[in-house]
Each structure stands twice: as structure tokens, then as C-alpha cells.
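Memo to structure team: turn this sequence into C-alpha cells by end of day. - J.P.
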Amino acid sequence: MMTKEKKILGTEQAWDSRTLGCDIKYAKRAKSELALNIDESLGLQMISIRLNQELIAAFKVIGEHHGVGYQPLMRDALQRFATAELKSIVSSGLASQKKKSIAQTKSVGGSSRPIKKAA
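Reply from structure team:
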């Protein structure tokens, strides 16, 4: 004989509103092997860094305002900075290459104008 599972009415809404699943008494630390697997699958690496207290306090206030933890917020800020800097480096490198190419063309008596075919 099969028994039907009871569904808790409004469970989805209860999770979304944090009525269910938000109490610290139900939280537990992941086993270290599981934590390592999660970090590996997300491409995360633990580091140690010293930051001034005011900076950490500022990130905590900002994180609380946005409803996120300060460490994920810091990770996001560092990712945004790194992405922008890499784009800037590539962009300036391309501009520098273009300038070099134009300078080389002019130094050998060339012109950057297209060559016209003889009629």
C-alpha cells in the first residue's frame, strides 16, 4: 500500500518569506570535504588578507542594505574591479599597437591612405 506524502501548504511562500529555513537552530556547518568540493566546483580559493576596520565596516553596512553578506559583496567588488582593469589594459594595449603601426608605416615613407589602382 502506497502512502501519500503530505504537502505543507504554502511551503514555497514560507521559504520565500523566510518563515521556513531561516532559523539558526537548523543550520549546521558543512563537512570539510563537502566544503572543499563546493569551493572547487565554484572555482573559489581561500585567502588571507588584512583590511582596515573602517573598510570592513563600510562593506557590512552596504551588504546589509542590499541584503547580502559583506564577504560575497567584497568578492563581487573585486571581480568588477579586475574585469574593468583588464578591459582597460587590453584597450590601452590595442591603442598603443595601433599607434605603433601607424608610426612604422609613416617612418618607411608609406601612407595610411589606400592605394589606387591604375586605370
